[in-house]
Amino acid sequence: MSKDNQILEDLTSKEYEHGWSVKMEADEAPIGLNESIIRWISTKKEEPQWLLDWRLKAYKTWENMTEPTWANVHYPKIDLQSLVFYSAPKQAKKTKNLDEVDPQLLEIYKRLGISLNEQKRLEGVAVDVVLDSVSVATTFKDTLGKLGIIFCSFSEAVKEHPELIKKYLGSVVPMTDNYYAALNSAVFSDGSFCYIPKGVRCPMELSTYFRINAANTGQFERTLIVAEDESYVSYLEGCTAPQRDENQLHAAVVEIYAGAHAEVKYSTVQNWFPGDKNGKGGIFNFVTKRGICAGDHSKISWTQVETGSAVTWKYPSCILKGDYSIGEFYSVAVTNNYQQADTGTKMIHIGKNTKSRIVSKGISAGKSQNSYRGQVQVMKRATNARNFSQCDSLLMGDRCGAHTFPYIDINNPTAKVEHEATTSKIGEDQIFYCNQRGISTEDAVALIVNGYAKEVLNQLPMEFAVEAQKLLALTLEGSVG
Amino acid sequence: MLSIKNLHASIEGTPILRGINLEVKAGEVHAIMGPNGSGKSTLASVLAGREEYEVTEGEVIFKGKNLLDLAPEDRAREGVFLAFQYPVEIPGVSSTNFLRTAVNQVREYRGQEPLDAVKFLTMMKEKMKLVEIDQKLLSRSLNEGFSGGEKKRNEIFQMAMLEPTLSILDETDSGLDIDALRIVSNGVNQLKSDKTATIVVTHYQRLLDYIVPDFVHVLYKGRIVKSGTKELAMELEEKGYDWIKEAVDSEATV
What we know:
The complex is a heterodimer of chains A (481) and B (254).
Chain A: H1 2-9, E1 26-28, H2 35-44, H3 49-63, E2 87-89, H4 103-112, H5 116-121, E3 125-131, E4 134-138, H6 141-146, E5 150-153, H7 154-160, H8 162-168, H9 179-187, E6 191-196, E7 205-211, E8 222-227, E9 232-240, E10 247-250, E11 253-258, E12 263-271, E13 282-293, E14 299-306, E15 311-314, E16 317-320, E17 326-335, E18 340-349, E19 355-364, E20 369-378, E21 386-395, E22 401-410, E23 416-425, H10 428-436, H11 441-452, H12 454-457, H13 462-476
Parallel strand pairs in A: 3-7, 6-8, 7-9, 8-11, 9-12, 10-13, 11-13, 12-14, 13-15, 13-16, 14-17, 15-18, 16-18, 17-19, 18-20, 19-21, 20-22, 21-23
Antiparallel strand pairs in A: 1-2, 3-4, 5-6
Helix pairs in contact in A: 2-3, 3-9, 7-8, 10-11, 11-13
Chain B: E1 2-11, E2 14-24, E3 29-33, H1 40-48, E4 53-62, E5 65-66, H2 72-78, E6 80-83, E7 90-94, H3 95-109, H4 117-130, H5 135-139, E8 141-142, H6 148-162, E9 166-170, H7 178-191, E10 197-201, H8 206-210, E11 215-220, E12 223-228, H9 230-239, H10 242-253
Parallel strand pairs in B: 3-10, 3-11, 6-9, 9-10
Antiparallel strand pairs in B: 1-2, 1-4, 4-5, 7-8, 11-12
Helix pairs in contact in B: 2-3, 6-7
């Protein structure tokens, strides 16, 4: 008991490591949101008419929608009219060669620990960096190009591969899907596009790094991944944001399409600024991520490590349409101080013999609230559908909360659905045991937490797993006395 | 090496230790025996620095330092090792990973370079022989699903890896069959030197056939009420604790 209290008293909270911003001249849209802002963005990006029409339609839809309130999160109403919906660093002229990239930008990446030069040398990682709203440089394009793989910024894809964008944009997450998805569809600024042709196995991890730099900007990026039949790709997304007092909005949309026998692995390490220890500032992260296993025997696997954001609202989902298709969701969500996370997944079984697996590990510390919300839906014709869900919660201290909201909806009697849930506390016994072997309390917590999350961390590609481990430790630093 | 003077400790206001005095020199093995509830495990826990226990009086000097002033991890780094009666499970953390973290933190405290993976594994292989422990066990989650014997062997293996100056074995014999007892004791004996000391906390004389003590102390109601040599342990085995209890209790009532 005494220790529990102390845990909380000592919640000094580690200062956010990526809390800096570089002053750059930015090309910004006027403040607020209306039709002319959307036209402004579209013009700025030299978009074709069809895309502007699409945006405007989304905007009309959005205007008639209301913000969802069912999630177990509480935050002041966001004044969208005070936000800047588009911000591009001025120096960001498209560059083919990394040497032409603004040295100031390179400096940012270096401080993020992902210097492109370094990344270039790192075997097998191609990076598309999105800073605020514009994709600045894409590496490895040539190597990928030879295989017919397209990996570029979304704006570039609109210009160079309009037929693909037209075909797939909004096909998995319709603009009418939800409030934030509609908002994103109206004002999205940039993002990444990735196309793997039939039968091609992408030889390297594709990676995007998002970072919000300018103050008062919402970041609305859009990612579209198309994996044609019998192809494979592993995609990594990392996020950071500078520290600011006010809240910043992030409402992204990710769509994944997997053809027959195709496999897409999507990994996220999210480290947006979570607000300070008093709950001031931080990112509102309202993201819609969904994949469709369109072809038979296809597979989509989501892995996420969520350590940041003041409020997270995010449910990477799989529509298992093809027979024998597989959906997976592996998640570690850590909340500390006043953070709130409502995250989970949806597995929608439509095809026969479809399988899904959900492993969710929540870790709550401080005064944070951590909710798992998951839906497993088995449709009428989904004979022999199987699902296994495991939801574990780990509590640190006695002022945080862990909640589990599983929804199961079965319309076919052959379905087999299993749900397991556990709640545990980091034991004083465990910490003392580590201490007695000479391990400091901070390191003991890191060790225990990483052990707890191991099943999920194991799903991450090597470099990411190491970063994720460090992040977990960093997020919880100072949370135990 | 270790000097305990008039040590009093309580848990949630209830006094458990009521004035322990004990001197342990390098090269010695001390056995602490006594009936259930006499405070044996409390003494071990207080020396290791478990927080639930409050030291209300007395002092403990270890290698010239006031042990009670040190955090549990610093006591460990100074060379105090406690082999737990009930080793704790840490899911998802392999023994190897756990020990490497521990060994390197101890080394850092002592101003030594951390061991790289190769050196660490070489050291592990060498020490594994001491307690006849299987490599497979060490790649599993720490203590999770281990049998009682495996847990105790793993404790002694950790002791071998951390090379402590003072080892406290808290009822290491409980839950061990005769073969495991022999293996564990062998390990402890091989680790003994004229620079290290061992405190063996036990109920039974059985363990002391293997780990031969230089001194035997009987703890009762939070005090050491009788001290002797290994013959005292034999006597206790034969006669039980009642005669000691009676002697102490009658003295108290007089």
